[in-house]
Amino acid sequence: MDTETEQQFIATYPLAASMREEDRLFLLGLSRRHWFSFQQMRMLIEQSIDLSLWDQGSLSMLWNEDTGANLSGKPRTKAIIAAVNQQIDTLRKNPTDYSDFTRKPKTTSKVTHVETLGDERLLGRCPCPVSGEKTRCCNLMTLDVVQQCAFACSYCSIQSFYHKDEIQFAANLAQRLEKLELPEGAWHIGTGQSSDSLMWGNDHGILDALSGFATKHPQIVIELKTKSGRTDWLDTTSFPRNMVASWSLNAPTVIGREEHLTASLEQRFAAARKAADCGMPVGFHLHPMVHFNGWEEEYRTVVEEITTRFSPGEIVMVSLGTLTFTKEVLKQLRESGRPSRVLQMELTETAGKYSYPVETKQQMFSHAYNCFPKSWKTGDGPFFYLCMELPQLWEPVFGYSYPDNASFEAAMKRHYMEKVFSRS
Q1: Which of 55, 59, 89, 410 makes a 20 to 30 Å CA pair with 179?
Q2: What's residue 192's pLDDT?
Q3: CATH 3.80.30.30 region(s) of the chain?
Q4: Within 10 A of 141 (CB to CB), how many other CB atoms are there?
Q5: pLDDT of residue 109
């Protein structure tokens, strides 16, 4: 295959640059025998990349020229593609099998720059809302004091949003937070949207600055969300009662196969336990839940660990959520070349994003919620909620729902305030 033809192919389909060379040449060879439409070729490129990232062989292994042998032209091409689609759909519809998946992405140390974020806006909003009331949104505000993350979760889009090999810290953070004006009605701010909140500890005075900001705004709940096991910050920083530390938890299989460089489940629990022992309010996010072989038992174990190690009165919130992607993030994950099976799922479009079918979500969320004892769901227990999910999932999962986002946010605020500010 001549270089000019290959370059024209990549120019027409930019995602083809992310394909393995042998897969790209295979598709180019097919294009000489079949008149693929633009949409057909784009789909085949995506499927080829997916199979490579999943470590599930190649498109050439699924392509069978004998399919539709009694046909010719476009009908025959459609028949062959339909047979390929059927095989890939089978992989997607079944729970993901990680038993033979051992590939890990190549990870490199990222360079840190302390004084690179100057005039950038620090305050933003969680990107989960879509137009109208299509998903239940808590109206979380964000403080982006660090850009980029040193963890390497395969499903994470942060690594594609910012400078890939640079971690940038906000300069003069304490002074900038001192001058920061909050919009009317602000009450809940998270710092884990553009980076992990606690993997840096108090490096560069981040937590000292945030603690000062929280002290200045006692009516605001500041949430530090992490997958880290680091705890030295608890010994060096004084926190006001309106700062909450929360840990994203997952099944050990998902942590080991997809959440690279993060703390183990045991390390996360140990860090959360130390924070609670120091008197800090804590919370958990069982997110993103993944539909894989053995998911029921592993997530049951995660919940049992929560309820064994902590009392319901210590926990502010427990959220449930799963893998959710925009078209742009899907493109970024395929371009990244990071080995992963997170996209080996039945991608269903809902509210402008792609995720599991509603039936699969309901099954996973209901299972996790039902694993919590009744004592955790009443009185002094945590606030349970679904993160970035459809309103119609709430009733079958929790047995209750909210009529709109404002009602959901009001209930969350009332619970958080009671939990956080009733602590001695």
Answers
A1: 410
A2: 78
A3: 114-421
A4: 18
A5: 62
Nearest Cα neighbor of 47 from 32, 30, 33 is 30
How far is 336 from 332, CA to CA, in rounded Å? 6
**How do residues 112-162 score in pLDDT, each as one tens digit?**
655 565 556 788 877 654 555 788 888 889 998 888 888 989 998 776 666
Is it the case that residue 327 has pLDDT exceeding 60? yes
Question: Which amino acid is present at 10?
Answer: I
CATH topology (fold) of 114-421: pyruvate-formate lyase- activating enzyme (3.80.30)
Closest alpha carbon to 59 in 86, 28, 90, 84: 84
Beta-carbon contacts of 267 under 8 Å, excluding residues fewer than 6 positions away, are 229
Instruction: Say if CB 402 and CB 135 are below 8 A apart.
Output: no
pTM across the whole model: 0.93
pLDDT for 117 equals 57
Sign of CA dihedral 358, 364, 369, 373: positive
Contact 345, 291 (CB under 8 A): yes
